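Hi, here's the filled form for the chain we discussed.

Project: internal
Contact: R.S.
Residues: 618
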Amino acid sequence: MASNLNQDANELLDWNMTSSQVNQDCLPTSSDHTESIIPLTSPTSIELLDLLITGSQQEEAEWESVNALLTKNGLKPVFLVKRTRGKNLGDLIIFDKQSSQSIRQTLKRLVDDSTRNQNMIHQLIEANQQLRDELQQEQIRALQEEKRANDLEQVMESVKSKIIELEEESVVMVSQQQNQVKEFQKDQKAEQAKYHQCEQKWMEQQKTLSCLQKEIHKLRKEEELRAATQKRVFNRLCKQATQTVVDKQHCKEDTDMEEGGKEDFVDLDGTPHYKNLLMSFQNQLRDVKAKNDKLSCENQNLRKDLESRPSLHDLRLYKQQVKKLEKALKKNIKLQELIREDKSENLDNKYSEISKIESQRQALFDQKYFKILTRIDSIISNPRAPVVIYKQSKGPFQSYNKANSQECGFEHLPPTIEMWARQLTSLKDLHRSLEKLSEKLLPWHNVKQYDKNEGGIKVEDLLFIVDNILEEVEHKKKSDVPCPETLQAIVNHFQKLFDVTSVSGIYPRMNEVYTRLGEMNNAVRNIYEILELDNSSSLSVLVNTVGKLCKIINEDVGKHVQQVLGTQDIQSIINKLEEYDEFFPAFQAFIQDLLQILEVNNLDAIIPEVKKLKLITN
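And the returned structure, exactly as it came back:
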């Protein structure tokens, strides 16, 4: 508008100058027709022009300030059009100074109100965000406190359950110990009765032995007397009987033997009466020898029986063990009474009492553990054990342990058991490798799945798999042509693989699979080309790149939405829309009133109608 005023002033100057020249050239000579024209070069006209120029400049400066405010708040500025000749005035809006000033003031007020409202909105958003952060922190604290409370409750429940379990275990242990003590007492009574019986038998056997020894001594004496009397009688008979040449020779031999100090039996050819006597004496000697042998065997058996039976030292040990068990039983009874009476005492005292009970229980079960360890040691040192373990058990390692540690000689057991455990765990790896090998060589065979409840993997199962593989390999070597059973197994395998009931449906399903596979390969190649990846790269690389692209796109979309809306979350968007709904109904009512007054349907037609009315009023 100011530029229009400057242009009008310049045009007026040009027109006046031209008109003055024309008037000077074309003035009539008569003085009657002359008119008084004020020249523009007069001081009054110059002052008017200065006023017009300064007013237009001030107005331009004010509009520039208003436009700066509008552009700052994201609104379109008001353009001042220079006045040109021949331009249609219907496309322009002309305001006077008062209306332009009022419009500028209203625009400034609106801009100030909008900035104030925006500041208030930002403050409200910040306050809302702070409140949300505080609320989240309080929720997190509440959750933490709930977790702590739950953890403490769980700890309390676990402690209570442990206390109950320990009480039950202590009661069970006390009852078991009582039963064991009763059994030990019964065993002690039985052992004492056996001991008394053994003592009585031993005394009886000692008596019988002494009697037998006396009888043997008597029999020896009687036998010596009989032998002496027999010799005497024999000598007398020999002297009294008639002597033949043979008898004389026998007598000479007897005398020679007696002179040499040798005593031998002589074959007699006497009367039959003396022969019967000799035979009876020999039979009696044989019977006596047999009785002596029987008595000596019985004596040896009795000695062995006495040696196998417990001695006085063993009885003393048994008595000491019984006394210890009685003391332990008394302590357990006292502890049980204390547990019943003092249930409200601290947990530490209970744990200490329970530890004492456990130590006593451990002392009772040490013998069982020692027996178990000795059995394990005997199994390891058995020649039927594996070669490595048998050599280790017989090698210098065991001797060194026995020499250096006299208290327990089972230090070699853990490494051997660990070696067994490693071997057992390696069975799983061996089973996996055999499964892979069988899948490659025998894909139509169903591999058995082993459960832990069934005992896990066994060596027999591995041998079965190896035997199957060997049989199949040998069969392949013998004949390359497969048997109908293998062909049937292959067909069944394909039916299971392609989920087909009949044989005729295998080929269409295979064609579908191959077509789908080709489509997938083409799609993968296209994706590789689009993403400019190497064809040799794996599918995992492709999936990772696609995931990264999707992530980048989602982040860009979120940022774009935030830039467009100028907000951080949905709640702030809703608040902003509610504020706009409250702020703009006045403008909507104002525009509807204008449309009704001007009798116009569109917003674009309001400005031309206002211009027409202004022109009409002017």
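Let me know if anything looks off before we file it.
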